[in-house]
Design a protein that fits this description.
It is a single chain. The chain has 341 residues and is an alpha/beta fold. The chain folds into two domains: 136 residues, ATPase, nucleotide binding domain (Nucleotidyltransferase, domain 5, 2-Layer Sandwich), CATH 3.30.420; 171 residues, Nucleotidyltransferase, domain 5, CATH 3.30.420.40. The protein has ten helices and twelve strands. The strands form three sheets. The chain has a five-stranded mixed sheet, sandwiched between helices. The chain is globular. It binds 5'-O-[(R)-(carboxyoxy)(hydroxy)phosphoryl]adenosine (KG4) and zinc ion.
Length: 341
């Protein structure tokens, strides 16, 4: 019955979790609000905040799980990808702890963990929620990534489509910035979109081959659209914010789901999942579930706390790695852009 402590520090959330025998016992997340006023994550400030947060967050995760340091069987951490300064704080902390406790170290790839978040056991009203079965498809959409993955087993995954420029979360956040909304703007677009008419404005969809995505053209077309409208009416954004947000959201969701549908048809896989922070988007969730019903897929979305960056998904992935005895030496290093096979 392995008990694993995991640390996630790839971007601007300091998180620690304890997973014992595949069950998540605690999942603590310290958000960094310092970046709001800069309109995006400032790497140096993120690293400093991780250094401040990491000890209290780990301490609280152990307390909530009622697990003491000697009871741990392994220490896991996010090795890649992410901001290098942020990753270094978590990786050095995990390595030092593994060395001090003389316990195995498990290096986890952040994107694999986002996918496996769909398998974390959860319950609704005391009843276990169904889980996807291998092989399943996963659309991982976050601030840094947009990928379609075929998961054949916990440790065997292939990326079959990804963005060639901006990630879906960036498309939300950059559009929000053009509208004068604070960072991160994705959740705000979602909120305004709920009261807007999504068919009021239309933005072009990119023509990208295969299962890849592109979002940089959308940002440019929104910029030119707004410039033109603001020339005619300087209050255009304020007067039409809800409709603009709904129209932008509909375009992003359509781009994402068209490729996901193509992936399902090409592979013949019918268990289909979402992952990553953007899967919190209400427009995406509704359209995804609807598309699943229309195509006879089983659809899955992780619990909200396992969608955005969190250490529970790192601990849970480490559990599979522990069973495979897939440990790392203390010489393992963090990497901003590690390839993932
Ligand atoms: O997975 P995540 O927490 O961190 C990264 O690894 O990037 O994803 C954060 C991203 C941000 O771009 C944020 O704007 C977006 O997810 N996001 C949303 C929503 N909630 C978070 N985008 C659209 N609608 C939402 N409700
Ligand atoms: Zn992430």
């Amino acid at each position: 019955m392995p008990c694993i402590l995991a640390i996630e520090s790839s971007c601007d959330e300091t998180s620690a979790a304890v997973c014992c025998d595949g069950e998540i016992l605690s999942n603590l997340i310290a958000n960094q609000t310092i970046h709001e006023k800069y309109g995006g994550v400032v790497p140096e400030l993120a690293s400093r905040a991780h250094m401040k947060n990491i000890v209290p967050v780990v301490d609280e995760a152990l307390k909530q799980a009622n697990v003491s340091l000697p009871q741990l069987d392994a220490i896991a951490f996010t090795q890649a990808p992410g901001l290098i300064g942020s990753l270094l704080v978590g990786s050095q902390f995990a390595k030092s702890l593994a060395l001090a406790l003389n316990k195995p170290l498990i290096a986890v790839h952040h994107m694999q963990a986002h996918v496996l978040a769909n398998l974390i056991p959860t319950t609704s009203n005391g009843i276990k929620n169904p889980k996807p079965e291998f092989p399943f498809l996963c659309l991982t959409v976050s601030g840094g990534h947009t990928q379609i993955v075929v998961a054949r087993s916990a440790n065997n995954m292939d990326i079959i489509g990804e963005t060639i420029d901006d990630a879906a979360g960036e498309a939300f956040d950059k559009s929000a910035k053009l509208l004068g909304l604070p960072y991160p703007g994705g959740p705000l677009i979602d909120q305004y979109a709920k009261r807007g008419n999504a068919d009021r404005f239309s933005f072009p969809e990119p023509q990208v081959e295969g299962l890849n995505f592109s979002f940089s053209g959308l940002k440019t077309s929104i910029l030119y659209f707004l410039k033109k409208q603001l020339k005619e009416n300087e209050k255009f954004i304020a007067e039409n914010l809800e409709d603009i947000c709904a129209s932008i959201q509909k375009t992003i969701v359509t781009i994402l789901l068209k490729k996901l549908r193509k992936a399902a048809l090409t592979t013949g896989i019918t268990d289909v999942c979402l992952a990553g922070g953007v899967s919190a988007n209400s427009g995406l969730r509704t359209a995804f579930v609807e598309m699943g019903q229309n195509n006879n897929w089983r659809t899955f979305i992780p619990a909200f706390e396992y969608c955005t960056d969190n250490a529970a998904m790192i601990a849970f992935t480490a559990y599979y790695k522990y069973l495979d005895k897939d440990f790392s030496p203390l010489s393992v290093t963090a990497s901003a852009k590690a390839e993932w096979k």
